[in-house]
Amino acid sequence: MQEEFISSKQNAKVKNWRKLKTAKGRKQQGLYMIEGEHLIEEAVRSGVYLEAIILNETYEGAYPTGFSTYRLAAHVFESLAETDSPQGILAILGAQSRFNAAEDFQQLLAKPGDAINRWLLVDGVQDPGNLGTIIRTADAAGYRGVVLGTGTVDLYNDKVLRSTQGSHWHIEVVELPIETAMQTLQGAGIPVLATALHREARDYRTLDYAAGAPLALVVGNEGQGVQAKLIEQANLSVFIPMPGQAESLNVAVATGILLFAL
Amino acid sequence: MQEEFISSKQNAKVKNWRKLKTAKGRKQQGLYMIEGEHLIEEAVRSGVYLEAIILNETYEGAYPTGFSTYRLAAHVFESLAETDSPQGILAILGAQSRFNAAEDFQQLLAKPGDAINRWLLVDGVQDPGNLGTIIRTADAAGYRGVVLGTGTVDLYNDKVLRSTQGSHWHIEVVELPIETAMQTLQGAGIPVLATALHREARDYRTLDYAAGAPLALVVGNEGQGVQAKLIEQANLSVFIPMPGQAESLNVAVATGILLFAL
C-alpha cells in the first residue's frame, strides 16, 4: 500500500487524529492512538482493528504493512506524539467494544471463556501508570477481565496504554459503576472481596480458594482505598499485613500480591 | 525562626539549590531536595538532617518550624521545583550515609538490627517510579535494606523520592555493585536468590523459608531482567509462573509478589 505524505498540521485527518489526545475526542470518534513499534506489533498480533499507521518523515524502523500508512513532516508528527522522545511511529486503533451496561456484563459472566472466571474491579485508580500496570498484572494472573469503575482514569490515556503493554487486548475490559458490577457478580454467585486498609479485615494469607474458583477482587484509589460503601457491599474484606514501617503499598503492587496469592 | 525572602534567581543559595537537580550536584554538596508537605513531614518525623525549608511566596499551607526557612518570589521558586504543579514547599536534606564500600556492608550484616536480615538487591532498574515503589515495598515487607547496583537510577532523583513516600528513611540503603554485595552476603552465610524470566528457574511457590530467615533477593532491569552472570552467581534462581498472556510482570509488582510470598 502506498504511503500518503502530509505536510500540514491543518490537514483534516491530522486535525481529527489530534482530537484523539482527549478522552472526549476518543469517545466521539471511537478511536484511540498508540505509540511505539513494540506496542503496535502487539496490536497487530492481537487482531484489533487498525485504522492507520502514522510515521515521522525521519522514521526508518520497521512497521506492519497492509494498512493505510501516512508519512508526516516532522513538525506535523510532533503535534500528535505524546512522549517527549517519540519513536516516530503511531497507530490509530478502533476502541474495543467495552461492555458498559449491566446486561452486557451479565451475559459475559454467563458465557465462561477459556480463562478462569476471575475479575478485578478497579475503584477510582487515578495514576495512569498504576492502572496500566494493574491491567497487565490481571492479564499475567490469567484473570478474565477488569471492571473500570467511575472515577478511574481513562483506559485509552497514552500513559495507561504504555503501561498495559497490550494486556488490555488479552482480557475483557468492562466499564461499569463498581456497585453495579458487584451486584451482577454476586447475582451470578461469584464472591466479591474488597481490599481494606485496616486490620479488622481478613488477613489474605488465611484465605483458601481453590485455584480457578470464580472470584472478584476490588482494589481502590491511591489515597482513599476502596470506598466504604463498597467494602460493606462486598462478601469479605481483606488486607495485607505489613511488618515494616511503610504506611501502605502501591496499589499495583498490592494487586499483584493478592492476585498471585489467591 | 525568621523567614528570609529571596527575590532573585541569581541569589547564591538559589544557585546552589538549583544544582541539586542533577545527580552530580547532589553528590558534590551531599544534599538533596524533596517536594510536598507530606514527604517533608515524613522527613522531619524520620529525624533526617534538614538544612532548609523553601516556600513559594504564595504558599499558605503548614510547614515544620525550627528550621532555616526561605520564602521565594514565585519565578524563583519555580526555577527549583520539579513537578508541573508544585505544592509550593520544598526542603533541602542531607544525603544519608550510604554504605558504598564492601567493608561497610559487611559490618552492617554483622550487626543484626531489629528488622529481619533480609535484603533486596536492585540490578539496573531504570524507571524512577519503579525504583521508588520497590523501596517502599521492601520497607512494607519489613526488609532490612536495599542494595542499589551500578546502572540503577539515582535514589535522590525527584521521581524516585516521590514514589518511595519516605521509605528510604526507614531502611538501609547501600550502593554497591551487585556482585560485590552478593559475595558479601554469601560470605556471611545468607543465601541469595535471583529472579529469572525463564521457566528453568525454580517456581517461587515451591520455596519454603522460615519467616524471618536471612535471605537476599535480586531483581533486575525492566527490559533485560537480572544479568546472566548474577543469576549464575546466585544460590538459586526463581521465577513467577504466569497463567495469562502477558509477557512479563512490572518489576515492582514482581518484587511485591516475591517479598510477600517468601
From TrEMBL, chains A, B:
Residues of the RNA 2-O ribose methyltransferase substrate binding domain: 33-99
Residues spanning the signal sequence: none
Sorted UniProt keywords: Methyltransferase, Transferase
SMART domains: SpoU_sub_bind
GO biological process: methylation; RNA processing
GO-annotated molecular function: RNA binding; RNA methyltransferase activity
Cellular component, GO, one term: cytoplasm
Record-stated family: Belongs to the class IV-like SAM-binding methyltransferase superfamily. RNA methyltransferase TrmH family.
Protein name in the entry: RNA 2-O ribose methyltransferase substrate binding domain-containing protein
